[in-house]
Structures are given as structure tokens and as C-alpha cells.
């Protein structure tokens, strides 16, 4: 049984992306955004089509919900790790989607030092701390959308806890220090990824799992098609549900092995207070009959955590 304080992860059939996003948005029940500044972090790490990157229809639906909720300023912020950000956003259709929605686009590569907030290394696995984009730190609300992917470069999975890596500077504009080189060469990579989330506020995280990579990733891999979307205010709960979904289809040895809540990014993020600390504190909620069977399978995988 879930505890009274359990984090909810809502799940819905995604045959109609606009309907799915709208339904998830209403269930989450965000505080009013009237007159507020909202920062959106999507997933445009490379110049590859969905599910490597955010589907244009999903982005359009999210930006539409933000606007309809009364936001005064909407900013889409991104840094592509495997390409030139603005070109990636143009090629993937994100610039056109943002223009139609009246959203500003901020290519984080172009930010001066003043556009970043320094996070000190105290208590972290980052040798020098890191820089995180102020547009997320200073926004009244932050919404992110991620994809369902494994990660063959050491991250194991690329879900909502991995997505904010794109909100961290690749290099320090002041002294040139390369934070991404440190991250990708560190034996603590997955813990470092989790630590970013302590400083990345997030009011709603949406996982587009209409399709996903169960192997390989992040830009290409073995394709699965769950045809669902998931959303939560708790990124740890959302990622645990995402990993359960990957396990249901069969995934890499790193993803399939051991307890989900003992995996590095999940365990470290939970310890830092980013989200729940056990499968017992996570409740999956199917919003329609089409998603119920998958939710049952995911719950079974999560229940194995306490067996």
C-alpha cells in the first residue's frame, strides 16, 4: 500500500498528444501562472528525431498549456550536448513551435557569465561545482519534458533527472573550465547528474513515452512503443516509473539489474530530497482504460522492490 504522502505519477494513453498533455496538466493541478515567468526545458541534446529529442507536437502542447494558464513570459532554454544548439532547435522544429506559441528561445551556449549561477562544490561530487542557467533558477515556475531513453555513455538512463544536464554550462565563460568533460570522465557521473537536480527547480515533469529507446541511447537505439505519457511533480518517482517501464520491455543489463531505488541517480536524488525514497512511496495512476495494463505491469515491477 502507498503511504498517505505518496508521490503520484499519472499515466495516460498518448494516441492524441495534445489531449494527453492537457489531461496530465489538469491532474497535476499547478498553481496559477497568471502574469508569471515560466521556463521550459525540453530535450534537444542532439539533431535527431523523436524519441531522441522532444516531439514537436509534445512541445507545442506544453507551451500551449503554459500560455493558457496565463504566463506572461515563456522561455524555452536549451543546451545541446551533441550539436550546435540553435541549429538543433531549428532542424527539430522547436524554433517554429516556440514562435507560434510566443515563447522566447534561449540557446544557453550564448549566455555570458552573468547568465549563469555558480553552484559551489560543497557536499557534491563536482570538483569545482558547476554553473546552472539563471533562466531556470529565477523563473516563477519550471516545466520540463523528457524522453524515454537508455544512455550508453555512462548515464544508464536519460529521463527527467538526466534532462537538466542541458541546463548546466558546458564551459565556464569566465575561465574556460569544461564541466561536461569532468562529468563524462568521472566515476561519479550518475551521482553528479542527480546532484544537478537539487539546484534545478521543477514544478512539473512530463515523460513522453509514446516511443523510446530500450537499448543504446541517447540519440539512437532499440525502439519500443509504449504509447503512453507520464507526468509528476516528483522527478525521482517519474524516473523510477520510467525505469519500471523500460524493464517491462526488456532493457540493458545496467537498467535491468538490481533494485531501482538503489540505482545511482535515483538513490542520490532521493537522498538529496529531490523526491521519494522508495517504491512504496510512489503511486501510479492510470487516467484511462488504455493505459491500465501497462500501469499494472509497471506496478508489478516496482512491487518487486519490496519483495
If you had to describe this structure to a student in words, what would you say it looks like?
The chain is of the alpha/beta class. It has one domain: 3-Layer(aba) Sandwich (Rossmann fold), CATH 3.40.50. It is built from eleven helices and twelve strands. Helix 2 runs parallel beside helix 4, helix 7 crosses helix 10 and helix 8 crosses helix 11. The longest helix has 15 residues. The mean pLDDT is 96.
List keywords for this structure.
single chain; 307 residues; alpha/beta; Rossmann fold; 10-stranded mixed β-sheet; two-stranded antiparallel ribbon; 11 helices; 12 strands; globular; DUF362; DUF362 domain-containing protein
Radius of gyration, rounded?
18 Å
- Estimated helix fraction: 25-40%
Structural class: alpha/beta
Strand content: 15-25%
What's the gist of this structure?
The chain has a single domain, classed as Rossmann fold, CATH 3.40.50.
Sequence-ordered SSE layout with sheet pairings:
Layout: E1 7-13, H1 17-28, E2 37-41, H2 56-68, E3 73-78, H3 85-91, H4 94-101, E4 104-107, E5 116-119, E6 130-133, H5 134-137, E7 141-151, E8 156-158, H6 179-185, H7 189-196, E9 204-216, E10 221-224, E11 228-232, H8 235-249, H9 253-256, H10 264-271, E12 282-286, H11 292-303
Parallel strand pairs: 1-12, 2-3, 2-7, 3-4, 7-9
Antiparallel strand pairs: 1-11, 5-6, 7-8, 9-10, 9-11
Helix pairs in contact: 1-2, 2-4, 7-10, 8-11
